[in-house]
Amino acid sequence: MKSTRPAALAALALVAACGQGGGSGLNPANWFQNGPKVETMEAAPPVPGDPRPAIDQVISMAVEPMAGGVIVRATGVPATQGYWEAALVRGDDEDGRIIFDFLAIPPITPKRVSTQPSREITAGAFLSNRDLENIREIVVRGARSSRSSRP
């Protein structure tokens, strides 16, 4: 009985190591990834008629295919905790680019800053295949940074 424990532990360690193949073509999480994400420092201007300010930083973005189009998903970090009602608001389309502004309502009362993971907010938007005709780049902008994806 005692001799099976080391073999079982070695087998568990081997199986756990298999999940770390992030670049593997066999990993289903990599099947629908688009091209490289490019970070730019293009700040989002205020959206007319929308009281929500742009989120401080956009830290990640993904374009995920689905039936009839794609879902654009972005994660941002506001300056403090307590931001809510986050949304990707579509702005003007220009030169084959669809631009989304990442907006969120700030907390009503002042909140502490705390850690970045505790402040992260995710929002998404759907784009139909018709919306994607002649589009070569999708951009999500925040107050201090933006992310883009090219198919």
Counted beta strands:
8
Please trace the helix and strand order, writing H or E for each element.
HEEEEEHEEE
Classify the helix fraction into a percent range.
10-25%
Structural domains: how many? 1
Number of helices: 2
Quote the average pLDDT: 79
**Rg over CA atoms:** 20 Å
End-to-end separation in angstroms reads: 55 Å
Main beta sheet? 5 strands, mixed
**Order of adjacent strands in the largest pleated sheet:** 1-8-7-5-4
Residue runs with pLDDT of under 50 for 5 or more positions: 25-33
Please give a structural write-up.
This protein is mainly β and 151 residues long. It has one domain (25-149). The protein is 13% helix and 36% strand. The strands form 2 sheets. Strands 1-8-7-5-4 form a 5-stranded mixed sheet, with no helix packed on it. The chain has a 3-stranded antiparallel sheet with strand order 2-3-6.
Main traits of this protein?
3-stranded antiparallel beta sheet; mainly beta; 36% strand; 5-stranded mixed beta sheet; 151 residues; 8 strands
Summarize the topology.
Elements (H helix, E strand, L loop, with lengths): L3 H15 L19 E3 L16 E10 L2 E9 L6 E7 L6 E9 L10 H4 L1 E8 L8 E5 L4 E4 L2
Summarize the structure.
The protein has 151 residues and is mainly β.
